[in-house]
Amino acid sequence: MIAFIVRRLLQSLVVMLVVALLAFSMFRFIGDPVNQMVGVDTTEEVRENLRERLGLNDPVSVQFGRFVVNAAQLDFGISYQHKKEVSNLLAERAPATLELAFLSAIFALIVGVPMGVYTGLHRDSWLSKVFLTVSLVGISLPTFLIGILMIFIFSVWLGWLPSFGRGEVVDLGFWSTGLLTVSGWQAAIMPSITLGLFQMTLIMRLVRAEMLEVLRTDYVKFARARGLPNRAVHFGHALKNTLVPVITITGLQLGSIIAFAIITETVFQWPGMGLMFLQAIQTVDIPIMAAYLILIAFIFVVINLIVDILYYVVDPRLRIDRATAAGH
Amino acid sequence: MSVVSSLPGRRGADMLRRAWDSDIAYSFRQSKVTMVAAAVTLVYFVFALFAPWIAPHDPYDLSSVSLMDSFMPPVWEEGGDPRFLLGSDDQGRGILSTIIYGSRISLAVGFASVIFAAVLGVTLGLIAGYAGGAVDAFIMRVAEVQLSFPAILIALLIDGVARGVLGNEAQGDIAYFVIILSIGLSFWVQYARTVRGSCMVEKNKEYVQAARVIGVRPALVVFRHVLPNVLGPVLVIATITLALAIITEATLSFLGVGVPPTSPSLGTMIRIGNDFLFSGEWWITIFPGVALAVLVLAVNLLGDWLRDALNPKLR
Q1: Which member of A70, A168, B8, B37 lies 3.0 to 4.6 Å from A181 by CB, making a disulfide possible if both were Cys?
Q2: How many domains are there within chain B?
Q3: What structural domains does chain A harbor?
């Protein structure tokens, strides 16, 4: 057990180091960092001074070491574009993204699970067929298209909901939340549905498949034979046993939600980390790109690590199937 | 027709009949949804291949495009112009023509990146499966790490890095290679994993051992003997990843890091139109959006059907 965790930890560490190396080489070898920081008419002497001060004349290995140490202390340098500390920028933007991700996960769960249960229990009803068709469309349509269609219907056509931004936010000092104002909630509806739709269809299909499986098992038959009401059988016995894979998949998908937030945030101009990352790509703002890359990799590695360890604790056999569950 | 040439003709007819009676054709004929999907996909292919002859005008030919024609609504709306069946965009390009040319780009980029991903993935999978040992462990470890990140993120990153290396002005033709490269590199894993699995099964079979015994070089054994026997599932993955590749290209283009706006793909058109959604010119976004959705849905349905039809467990 300990050996497994240690090995897994080491592997995660290697992955993080590789990602850091990638980020570092982006930082160091794409363009000249000095050129990005000074004006065109700066003298060679000033440039050389800056170069020395930034440590760009040191051996590459020393620079990489410094980069890793700084990154571990959340110091990713200064954005070329915004001229501010990248870590501060990310911290400013993180609440928006995390709130969005959280709301979409909740949406996916509270809509996806009942739909899955219903389609599992009533396989041939017309409503199930409608749900399944909708889920196929939900999987097929690109996220940004769903967002645009929703904006077209609910903002342009009906004029019910705002199409961009977070609405009014309340600053709690360390965290700015949109969940305390009416306009904040209104602004969050469409982005979180757009972002959660794919996860919702995934959860729905998963719950349906699991329900169909579980309803055939002996203990469900036995529960029926005991004369328990349908409700108790369906929810107490069947649904409870489908929830373990649902929770793990939701956990694994959390990383994907944060990554897909890039698209949703762009469509709805949601001021989160994803939007900043995309703007950084367009303007080749390497420090932000590097920091975001490391951050996302860290989130993924931590989630995968936790899931792996949990699987190991719960059932060693499942470890083999893990990779397929994580895939898209 | 002489007697000599009628012989291959008969054989061709025979083959057609046998193809018609095969399991796959049967399951195809049984599924109406699949037939519709196949027909829709075929229409897109024909439009993409013969775009210059089908489209009302060439949207890339600047001499035929006039700013005077910009923001024309579709024909059935007030102020519509019969030259622009589905209206025109901000540059005066007809939406119908841009959709036809745009599907061409979307399909071309989709196919190219799927082929690139397949070649890369199949090769690496074969090497991993046949060589085993440290090589196998290394390739599969990389695959596993990549699989835990969403493809769109990887494509975005590769695109961003390429942009940084080439400089922002490196648009035009290079942009296509960059986007094909980034989509291809983010989808090779599925191929590699599947092919590695079947390769490990195949390499212990007698025909492979026989080939090795008579002294065929390992590279030749892998590519001439093992490869043809592991290609079945690759076709299914290719169909499914084609839909994903089209979506990814559209998404990248929508985000503004895809193909250049001078020759717009469907995603670029949606992005351009998105700016005008609020000023009432909805047709610039909605028509390309519907075109993209229908294309992706059709390819997805075909992929689903192909997977089920080729899966012996479901027969």
Answers
A1: A168
A2: 1
A3: 2-72 (no CATH), 89-327 (1.10.3720.10)
